[in-house]
Amino acid sequence: MQLSDRIRRVKIVLVVAAVIIAGGSLLVSNTLTRDLKKEEQRKMEVWAEAMRSLNNADENTDMNLVLKIIDTNDLIPIIVVASDGSVEDSRNISINAATAADSTAYLLDLADFMQSKGNSIRIVINDAAPKTDFIDVRYDDSLMLRRLRLYPFIQLGIVLIFVVIAIFALLTSKKAEQNKVWVGLSKETAHQLGTPISSLMAWTEILKENYPADELIPEMDKDVQRLQLIADRFSKIGSKPELVETDICAALRRVGWYMERRIPKTVRLHCNLPAQPVMVRGNASLFEWVVENLCKNAVDAIEGDGEIRVRLIDEGRVAAIEVSDTGKGIAKKDINSVFQPGFTTKQRGWGLGLSLAKRIVEEYHKGKIWVKKSELGKGTTFRIELKK
Known about the structure:
Layout: H1 3-55, H2 64-71, E1 78-82, E2 87-91, H3 97-100, H4 103-116, E3 120-124, E4 134-139, H5 143-210, H6 216-236, E5 244-247, H7 248-260, E6 267-272, E7 279-282, H8 284-301, E8 306-314, E9 318-325, H9 332-335, H10 353-364, E10 368-375, E11 379-387
Parallel strand pairs: 6-8
Antiparallel strand pairs: 1-2, 1-4, 3-4, 5-7, 8-9, 9-11, 10-11
Helix pairs in contact: 1-2, 1-5, 5-6, 7-8, 8-10
């Protein structure tokens, strides 16, 4: 089973587990909330009956039990409203500084809100008296009940955070494994190139001694040296390179000289560089590889006649390099994928160049690289930013 399939299955399992936990929590919480609400309603009925007994009491009535019932309620908010609309009593209601100035109006508004929720019990004071002689005991859910209602949503949020973190960790591990594969491939490529390059270098030295006047041998030597440079670049991938003060202008000029001799005549390369050096801490060999990759991709994107422009912009604390082409452009759906290992729109290719370019710029040089803009049929611009 491939890694991507395993990660997909794990993500499905995590999401299903989160749904089951959330559903179970909501079901259990809803059951507990319903039972607790019924219990509080029964307590309010007993409390209201105690209030009726208190209002109808005479000198012969034993008030101990009644007062005990009334005083034991220290959780449920209660407002007692008389038949004339005035507030007779309130319990477990918090009056803050903002409402203290007009607490009566605040309590009446709160009592109306409680009644709108159906939390009201009417008590007729004296059955023999007119039915207008009553009090309304209006109440709200206790703090415990309100917390119990919120609990499953808090738990659901925690579960969702856990799932997001777990999926992020899985994707990170997948990316790390992919990077490990590409780094291993790069080092193995450098290792495999080492032996034939050494042999070619020895043969060119023999040819120089035997045919010192031959004009082709120096060109062969340049190509062998180029192969040696490529192998050296591959060997540095995965290892922390040595960063030194580097003139980016000089590095870009070398890339321009190299590419001009190797691109088709229908493609024109323009380098817009400052006259003065622009210094950054970097590895010239690896940085040149990044720009070469961008230029080669630009050549592949240009079908027929076109242009490639390399610009270096000194922005004070940042040196910005922009590589633009007039090629076929990148589809919007693919812009976020171009730096992923293995992604390529070409029929031939490993999809390794831009992935390694991103690694060189962001991990080794602590810079940034991204697609600044791209339009189908008009071209693409890549931007690199390095701290000076």
